[in-house]
Amino acid sequence: MNILLLNHYAGSQTYGMEFRPHSFAREWVKAGHSVRIVAASFSHLRHQQPVTTGTITTEAIDGIQYYWIKTPAYKGNHLQRALNIFSFVVKLMLHRKTILSDFTPDIVIGSSTYPLDNIVAHQIARQFKATHVYEVHDLWPLSLTDLSGMSAHHPFVLLMQWAEHYAYKTVDAVISLLPYAETHMRAHGLALNKFYCVPNGIDISDPVGDASEIPVLHRQVLNRLRERNAFIVGYAGGHAISNALDTFVKSAIHLTRNDAALVLVGTGTEKERLMRRAKHLSLSNVYFLPPVPRRSVQPLLRSMDALFIGWQNKPIYRYGVSPNKLMDYMLSGKPIIHANKVGNDIVAECGCGISVAPENSYAIARAIRSLMKMSVEARDEMGRKGSASIQRHYQNKDLALKYIDLCTISIGRLTSIQKGERSTHVVHFETQS
């Protein structure tokens, strides 16, 4: 089959996040499919941007055809990012004939964080009589109003709301990363038997560096902490509002400097503010470090004693979460502190850490002290449960093939509808025990 994947933020192992489009597409190519990914030339998620010439630049990566649409750079979540989004969608619409001049898609996937690209995805799918799949990472515009505090009457929110309704009413199938989002989608126009869940996973076969590939600065900080026998709790990933890092940083107040240290690795819109907050609170046991290359992520995580991931205490999380960083955490074999009130607490389900209430610095500190009191063997056993769960349920090679199976089911249902037949059999894949 020919698969067209529209994902504004798609990356690769070289460029960085998002990894899911590249990882799944690589498996689809291995299975004999042809894949064309259309993405923006600039994304705040990447640590390296592709080199582009002109409006559209093509590049082959691991057998995948990438089409980079030239878009303006931006910083933060303000007007410049909105212009970047509109630039991508408008140019995608205007240049789709060029992008598809030698490619007839069987499946068209609209997969950007926002729903606007599904307008173009639907038009392309109908032109080629292809199946239109809407892949949902986040619930826009609900994320904008619940997490970012934007007014439901803001023009940008209203536009995204219209696009969400349009997508749910016109798609042939939704593949969601959020396991309990169907009720929300049904309330906004999605028909029965069109919802499937394929969570994030990880490529366990990707090359991983050893401790020597941890950047020098990071090694120096970790070595100093080891010398004083500090219990190191790490966070690696984006520093955004949704990550609820305020309470993680604040938990250091309740910990003795010589006993525990919090190490935050990464970048993001909240990083500078968090650094100022740590300084204001005179926290000498909190360390901020820059992001590391993909190859260095696993050795870095394995050099920690425990890992933290958290969420805001917001109703939106009742629909579930599927964070990439949690997959990395579980693979590392380290115990995880999960500050959450979400629909699917994967850490609690597989027993690979301690779950606590969200946005509660006392609870986070108590969890850290509990792990510190455990024997190394007990913590290692906890971590092994996480890595074992990755092996069983969260390998991209398996999830990518299930994804295509779901698309194939949708193709069959669409063909039946076109022939005036009635579809009576829909398969739902379970990815967790």
DSSP summary: helix tally: 16
Helix content: 40-55%
Categorize the overall geometry: globular
How does the major sheet shape up? 8 strands, mixed
Tally of DSSP β-strands:
14
End-to-end distance: 30 Å
Order of strands, main sheet, comes to 3-4-2-1-5-6-7-8
Radius of gyration: 22 Å
Portion in strands: 15-25%
Helix-and-strand structural type: alpha/beta
Average pLDDT metric: 93
Low-pLDDT regions:
421-433
Instruction: Write the element-wise H/E pattern from the N-terminal end onward.
Output: EHEEEHHEHEHHEHEHEHEHEHEHEHEHHH
What is the topological layout?
Layout: E1 2-6, H1 20-30, E2 34-40, E3 56-61, E4 64-69, H2 79-94, H3 96-99, E5 107-110, H4 117-128, E6 131-136, H5 142-146, H6 155-170, E7 173-176, H7 182-187, E8 195-197, H8 216-227, E9 231-236, H9 245-250, E10 260-265, H10 271-280, E11 286-289, H11 294-302, E12 306-310, H12 324-332, E13 336-339, H13 346-350, E14 353-356, H14 361-373, H15 376-393, H16 396-418
Parallel strand pairs: 1-2, 1-5, 2-4, 5-6, 6-7, 7-8, 9-10, 9-12, 10-11, 12-13, 13-14
Antiparallel strand pairs: 3-4
Helix pairs in contact: 1-16, 11-12, 12-15
